[in-house]
Amino acid sequence: MIRTTQILTLSALSLALAACNSSSSEPTPTPTPTPTPPSGSAELRIHHAASDAPDVNVNANGELLAGLEGVSYQMSSPVLDVEPASYDVTVDGILPGGEVTTVINAEGLELEDQTRYDVFALGLLGVEGTYEFGPHIIANDFSAIGDGNARLQVVHGVPADVTVDVYLTEYDADISAEAAAYTLGYKDDSGQFEVAGGDNYQVTLTAAGDSEAVLFRSPELSLPAGADLVVIATPNTGANSDEAPIALVLADGEGASVVYSTTTGGDIRIVHAISDAPAVDVHANEITAEPAVAALAFPDFTDYLNLGAADYEAFVTASGATDAVLNAGFNLQDGDVFSVLAVGLLDENTPASLFLAAEDNRRVATEARVRIFHASPMAGEVDIYVTATDDITDEDPAFPGVDFDAEEIQSTGNVALAAGTYFVTVTAAGTQDAAIGPLELELSAGGLYTAIARDPMGTEVAPGLILLDDFVTIE
């Protein structure tokens, strides 16, 4: 165990965040120390740390603030230089269709001279009490960072009744016999601390009083001198969130990056979308008698499977066979979520392949999220309509000219829709002749809905859809 003050422990936490966007083998750039601003100035920074809130616009005195438009979860603004004064700061949530609604109204926010203000959007929408959505403001007087030091401040932003112990150790050290350096509850923060720059650190967060209940464990970290960091513990909305519930956000004064725990791994699911292929086995790295996925038939799919962060080679064989008919390599990092689509046909004109589709599964309380993939060779180039009724006569396609490409499967991406009833119709491109649908969809706010266009199965004569996630009513 490295014998440290509490200051050093918290710096390790920000240190963990600093390594967020780079691999441990890459050097960490040395930041330029931030000079103390002159008298007659204040600073303001905004952090979006509310996991189920939509993207937001940030305004001051009725005007967009410093281009802060469409700010997403786990993003932070740069540190903004502003005049000391009273400001009406509002945060507008962006609703489906581009409409906005004010979700934070901080009228008369007094920004004093020689003070930095960090404004955090924390909590959950639609919840009252301790964890309800709202602003959380931390103010710090201006001060210079000591030579050779880094400064950081840790904030517990996970809206749950979980108090955490914070440990800083040498990388891969045993914490079981050590005392925690910090204990933080929701909205608690460490205050600003300075530590000497260094490397080979690891930050571990556990449930308070239980060193074996690990909630977050960082990769090997380096904290360079001159860094001035705010570190925010936020809900993990990436892979394996049940087992790894926390992700750290590092705000460095210019933006923010996300650090996932080394216990997170990546989530993948396999979708069999090759209509003329038999049931298949899927093997990881080598073909064995016990495949990772066995006897997956068209048009079925697996649940998400969690794998450790690493490089993988996927091999697909006919069920029970040992010769690979498809294979593909991919890199899986902590927090990644992918769908692996087996697509195409078993012929030379439309050769089968494996396509890796990155997924964003964050649920937003103000919208339903819908995404559609085109994996039907028979359908060819199509137009996709999303309408309020089943009549598309006077409608324009929401997604025109979507073509099948086995090497680069096209999709709509995540489309935000208000809760309600919709009809999806897929037509041959440039026509209103339905190839799929109209299909009636009941969508709920906070829902996640995925559909994959596929070729016919069995006695069907027209393409259909593989339905995943929260689809509940298809008629």
Q: How would you sum up the global shape?
A: globular
The main sheet comes to: 5 strands, mixed
- Rg value: 25 Å
Total of helices: 1
**How many angstroms separate the termini?**
61 Å
The beta-strand count equals 35
Uncertain runs with pLDDT below 50, 5 residues or more? 1-32
Which strand-content bin applies to the residues?
A: over 45%
Helix content: under 10%
User: SS-based structural class?
Assistant: mainly beta
Task: Write down the overall mean pLDDT.
Answer: 90
- Total tally of structural domains: 3
InterPro entries: DUF4397
Region (Disordered): 21-42
Domain DUF4397: 42-167, 267-385
Protein name: DUF4397 domain-containing protein
Task: Give a description of the structure.
With 475 residues, the protein is mainly β. The protein has three domains: 6-260, no CATH class; 265-359, Immunoglobulin-like (Sandwich), CATH 2.60.40; 362-475. 3% of the residues lie in helices and 46% in strands. The chain contains one helix and 35 strands. The protein has one helix spanning 6-18, and strands at residues 42-48, 56-60, 63-64, 75-76, 80-82, 85-94, 100-111, 115-122, 134-141, 149-156, 164-170, 182-184, 193-196, 198-207, 214-217, 221-223, 228-235, 246-251, 256-260, 266-272, 280-284, 293-296, 305-307, 310-318, 324-332, 337-343, 353-358, 368-374, 382-387, 399-402, 415-417, 420-428, 434-443, 448-454, 464-469. The strands form eight sheets. Strands 1, 4, 5, 8 and 9 form a five-stranded mixed sheet that branches. Residues 1-32 have low confidence and may be disordered. Residues 1-25 form the signal peptide. Residues 28-38 have a biased composition (Pro residues). This is DUF4397 domain-containing protein. Residues 21-42 are annotated as: Disordered. It comes from Aliidiomarina minuta.
